[in-house]
Amino acid sequence: MELILDQDKWDSFVEESPNGTLFHRWDFLQIVQKYTGYRLYPYGIYREGELISIIPFFLRIQKGLKMMISPPPLPMANVPYLGFAMSPAFHELPPHEKLVAWDWIVRDMHRGLKPTPNYVCIGQTSDVSDIRPFEWQQYEVDQQYTYVLDLRRPLKEIWDGFDRDCRKNINEAKKHPLSFREVSDVDRFNETMKEHLTKDGPTFYHRRDPAYLGELLRAFPENIKLYFFYNGDEVVGVKINLGYKKWYMSWMGNVAVQKELSTNEYFYWELIKKARADGYTRHENYGTYNQRLNLFKSKFNPALEPCFYAQKKDVLFETMWRSYNAVESFAKAIRVK
């Protein structure tokens, strides 16, 4: 395993990789590095001289502990997963050879990480689901999920799969002068999100300078789109979606500014139709653990796909982190009293 410092080589691999995402692109990673302050380590893994996999890590140092993470924590960059992107040759291997190669990749990655980390965490895309090589290396594996709609199906079939109340809300919303426009006002987007998520505590929108989103929009104007939703001339919702290859993601936003009108279902449906018309075949709505949000996301009858986070801690990390958390809990208890 070695660092890849050639942007063209890196991006060419991401473009050809069946599971290479927009989050893997060189400029995206550089922007994440700039705004999080975590140092980027773009690694390539070679097998018999052939580049078979890449994985971008970010080094985070906290309280003297070195953490190699891929991706950074969600509140810092709002990147839901990153991890390994594989070559087309890897995906074409027979099952036995694929397992041997996958096990070799994971072991080579763990041996080759420099600086030697106290903690490693990898959030993997849903199409790489074999967790066994991580378990064989004593990683803890946390299974998560993402929602996916197959856009190759006829529109009527997709529509018929929606919850009855969802279809009713969409039809009711059609009676109003609703529209959406692509905009670039990241400041207003961020303020809208902060206002409507205040009760959720310090979210990504409270932590991150909106200039981060502005730079991403400028770097990927064909892939990342900011939309404002209108009822007449009044803004009733905000949304950022992204598309790459055949994959389309409902990424950020989707708050309803005007509570008395169910605009979220209507605009979600409009953007599904637009994604399908633009040639995307897979629509993803990441995040399945918030019960309130799941009640909304599940209305559209998406498939539930598993994905995973794998993490490994050394003894020093375990000891220091437990001690730190114990002190914090004690201090919090004193403050409460």
Describe the structure.
Residues 164-282 form the BioF2-like acetyltransferase domain. It holds the Pfam family Acetyltransf_6. With 337 residues, this protein is of the alpha+beta class. The protein folds into 2 domains: 2-145 and 307-336, Gcn5-related N-acetyltransferase (GNAT) (Aminopeptidase, 3-Layer(aba) Sandwich); 152-280, Aminopeptidase. The chain is 40% helix and 30% strand. α2 (26-36) packs antiparallel against α11 (211-219) and α8 (164-173) crosses α12. The chain is globular, with a radius of gyration of 21 Å. Residues 329-337 have low confidence and may be disordered.
Summarize the structure.
With 337 residues, the protein is α+β, with helices and mostly antiparallel strands. It has 14 helices and 13 strands.
From the N-terminal CA to the C-terminal CA, the straight-line distance is 52 Å
Question: Could you say which overall geometry the principal axes of the C-alpha atoms support?
Answer: globular
Number of helices: 14
Report the count of strand segments: 13
Fraction of residues in β-strands: 25-35%
Protein name: BioF2-like acetyltransferase domain-containing protein
Domain BioF2-like acetyltransferase: 164-282
InterPro entries: Acyl_CoA_acyltransferase (IPR016181), BioF2-like_GNAT_dom (IPR038740), PG_Glycine_Bridge_Synth (IPR050644)
Considering the chains and any ligands shown, give keywords for the structure.
single chain; 337 residues; alpha+beta; Aminopeptidase; 2 domains; 14 helices; 40% helix; globular; disordered C terminus
Question: Mind sketching the topology for me?
Answer:
Layout: E1 2-3, H1 7-16, H2 26-36, E2 39-47, E3 50-62, E4 65-70, H3 74-77, E5 85-86, H4 88-91, H5 95-112, E6 119-124, H6 132-136, E7 140-150, H7 155-160, H8 164-173, E8 178-183, H9 186-196, H10 204-207, H11 211-219, E9 224-231, E10 234-244, E11 247-256, H12 263-277, E12 282-286, H13 291-297, E13 303-313, H14 315-336
Parallel strand pairs: 4-6, 11-12
Antiparallel strand pairs: 1-2, 2-3, 3-4, 3-5, 6-13, 7-12, 7-13, 8-9, 9-10, 10-11
Helix pairs in contact: 2-11, 8-12
